[in-house]
C-alpha cells in the first residue's frame, strides 16, 4: 500500500508533465505548497539559514534547496540531480506541410528515441507559447504553457500489403516517414473560419501590414488550423501567438498496471521518475518542523533540461547553473570568495537517471554479474571509462545509507562489447569538481513513447534519496580520503 501511494503520486506528476516546461511548472506548485520561496537569478538573493528556496532557468530547469539552521559559508551541498527532458518529436520552426491532400506537421527528432514506437499512437501537442498581451495601449509578452487535451494527430504505419518485408526490420526514415497527420485539406478548408484572410492563407502578395506581428506571415509557417486550436486552448487570438516551442505528445495517460498492479506504464519515465522521486524526497526531508535544526549543509535538488542532447545549453547541466547556485548561496553568507572551493570539496552529488533492467527476452544484453532487476532498488552505475562518475568512495556512501535504512541496492556495468550511455554525472563532476555517484531506478523500454518500471522501485528510490538528505552530513564526517 505504501509503495502504491508513492507510485500514485508519481503518476499524477507524470500526467501533469507532458513536457519539460510542464514538469518544472508542476515542481514549482509542489515546492510552493511545501513552503519553498521562489527567488530569481536576475535579482539579489537574501537567504537565511533554516529557510527553503527555488529558482528556475528558462522554465525548463529548476533548482530547489533548503539551508540547514547550522549552515555556515564553506559547508557542503547535498544534491540530487536529474533531468526534465525526454526524447520526443518537436515541431519545426516551419511546421506547415501539405502532401497528397493532407495537412501534416513537420517535426524534428529530439534525442535518441525509439521512433518506431511513435507510429499508430494518438498524439497531441504541448509546450510553451509566447503570447502578445495588449492592455491600455501598450504591449507585453507572456510565457504560457499549453496542452491540447484531445488527440489531434497520428503517424499511421504503412499496411503490410504494401511493405511485405516490414517484419524483417522496420526501418524509419525520420525525415519522410515521421510526419504526424493533422487533417485532410478538404475538411480543413470547409471548416476554416470566415475571419481567416484567404489572401494571406493562400500565400498571395502581401505588404506585411497584416502579418508583420504574427507567427504565420503569409500563412507559410504553420497550419492555420493548428494555430486556431492552440489559441483556443490558450484563450487568445491566433494572431497574438508570437512564437512557440511545442512537441508531439502521447495522449494515453500514465497508469499503475499489470496483473498485480506492480508496474508503472508511462512515457517519460526517463527521467521524470527520478525527477519526481528526488523532489518528493527533498520536500519530505525538509517539511517537519525540526528537520533542518541540526543540518550543517544545504539540501538541494537540481533538475536540468537538455540531458538527452548533451546538456550543452544555457539551462543544461553543462552550463554554469550548478556552480552559479553553489557560489551565490555561499557568497550570501560570506564575501570570502575562497569559501566556494571549500564548499565544493565538502559537497556530494547523486546523479539520478533511469537504469536498464534485465529484460527476460534479451538477457544476453546484460553482463553476467550485473543484471539489475525490478523490485531490487536503485542501481549504482559503474564505468571504468568515466561514462559514469561513480567511484569506490561515492558508491560506499550510497550503499552505507541504504544499509542503515534496509533499502535494497543493485549494481550495473555495461558489457565490454557494447557502448555505454552517459548522464549529467560526469558533466557536473568534471565541470564543478564535486564528488558524484551515478544511480537510477531500473526500467524497460527506455526512450520508447511508452516505458515501464516497477512500483516498488519508485518507493525504494524515494526512500533512498530522502535518507541521503537526512544522513549525509553525519556520514561524511566519518570519511577520510585526502589526508
From TrEMBL:
Top-level taxon: Eukaryota
Annotated region described as Disordered, given as residue ranges: 194-217
Pfam families the UniProt entry points to: Peptidase_M18 (PF02127)
Keyword Repeat: no
Cofactor: Zn(2+)
NCBIfam families registered for this protein in UniProt: PRK02813.1
PANTHER family: ASPARTYL AMINOPEPTIDASE, ASPARTYL AMINOPEPTIDASE-RELATED
Family: Belongs to the peptidase M18 family.
Entry protein name: Aspartyl aminopeptidase
Amino acid at each position: 500500500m505504501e509503495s502504491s501511494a508513492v507510485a500514485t503520486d508519481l503518476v499524477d506528476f507524470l500526467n501533469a508533465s507532458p513536457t519539460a516546461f510542464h514538469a518544472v511548472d508542476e515542481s514549482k506548485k509542489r515546492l510552493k505548497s511545501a513552503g519553498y520561496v521562489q527567488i530569481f537569478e536576475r535579482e539579489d538573493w537574501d537567504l537565511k539559514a533554516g529557510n527553503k528556496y527555488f529558482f528556475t532557468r528558462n522554465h525548463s530547469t529548476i533548482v530547489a534547496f533548503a539551508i540547514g539552521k547550522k549552515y555556515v559559508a564553506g559547508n557542503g551541498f547535498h544534491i540530487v540531480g536529474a533531468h526534465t527532458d525526454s526524447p520526443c518529436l518537436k515541431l519545426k520552426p516551419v511546421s506547415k506541410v501539405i502532401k497528397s491532400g493532407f495537412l501534416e506537421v513537420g517535426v524534428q527528432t529530439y534525442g535518441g528515441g525509439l521512433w518506431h514506437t511513435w507510429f499508430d499512437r494518438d498524439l497531441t501537442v504541448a509546450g510553451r507559447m509566447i503570447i502578445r498581451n495588449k492592455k491600455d495601449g501598450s504591449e507585453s509578452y507572456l510565457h504560457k504553457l499549453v496542452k491540447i487535451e484531445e488527440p489531434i494527430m497520428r503517424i499511421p504505419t504503412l499496411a503490410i500489403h504494401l511493405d511485405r518485408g516490414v517484419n524483417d526490420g522496420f526501418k524509419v526514415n525520420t525525415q519522410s516517414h515521421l510526419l504526424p497527420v493533422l487533417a485532410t485539406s478538404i475538411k480543413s478548408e470547409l471548416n476554416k473560419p470566415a475571419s481567416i484572410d484567404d489572401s494571406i492563407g493562400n500565400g498571395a502578395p502581401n505588404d506585411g501590414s497584416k502579418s508583420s506581428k504574427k507567427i504565420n506571415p503569409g500563412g507559410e509557417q504553420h497550419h492555420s488550423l493548428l494555430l486556431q486550436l492552440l489559441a483556443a486552448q490558450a484563450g487568445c487570438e491566433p494572431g497574438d501567438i508570437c512564437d512557440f516551442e511545442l512537441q508531439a505528445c502521447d495522449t494515453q495517460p500514465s497508469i499503475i498496471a499489470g496483473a498485480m498492479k506492480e508496474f508503472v506504464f508511462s512515457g517519460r519515465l526517463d527521467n521524470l521518475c527520478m525527477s519526481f522521486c528526488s523532489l518528493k524526497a527533498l520536500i519530505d526531508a525538509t517539511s517537519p518542523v525540526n528537520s533542518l535544526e541540526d543540518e550543517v549543509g544545504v539540501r538541494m535538488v537540481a533538475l536540468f533540461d537538455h540531458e538527452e542532447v548533451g546538456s550543452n545549453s544555457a539551462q543544461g547541466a553543462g552550463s554554469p547553473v550548478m556552480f552559479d547556485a553553489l557560489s551565490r548561496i555561499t557568497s550570501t553568507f560570506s564575501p570570502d570568495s575562497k569559501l566556494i572551493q571549500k564548499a565544493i570539496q565538502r559537497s556530494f552529488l547523486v546523479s539520478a537517471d533511469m537504469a536498464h533492467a534485465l529484460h527476460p527476452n534479451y538477457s544476453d544484453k546484460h553482463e553476467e554479474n550485473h543484471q539489475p532487476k525490478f523490485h531490487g532498488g536503485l542501481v549504482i552505475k559503474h564505468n571504468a571509462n568515466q561514462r559514469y562518475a561513480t567511484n569506490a568512495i561515492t558508491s560506499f556512501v550510497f550503499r552505507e545509507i541504504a544499509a542503515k535504512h534496509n533499502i535494497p541496492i543493485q549494481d550495473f556495468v555495461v558489457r565490454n562489447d557494447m557502448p555505454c550511455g552517459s548522464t549529467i554525472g560526469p558533466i557536473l563532476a568534471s565541470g564543478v569538481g564535486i564528488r558524484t555517484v551515478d544511480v537510477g531506478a531500473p526500467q524497460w523500454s527506455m526512450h520508447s513513447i511508452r516505458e515501464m518500471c516497477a512500483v516498488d522501485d519508485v518507493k525504494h528510490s524515494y526512500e533512498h534519496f530522502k535518507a541521503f538528505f537526512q544522513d549525509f552530513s553525519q556520514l561524511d564526517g566519518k570519511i577520510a580520503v585526502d589526508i
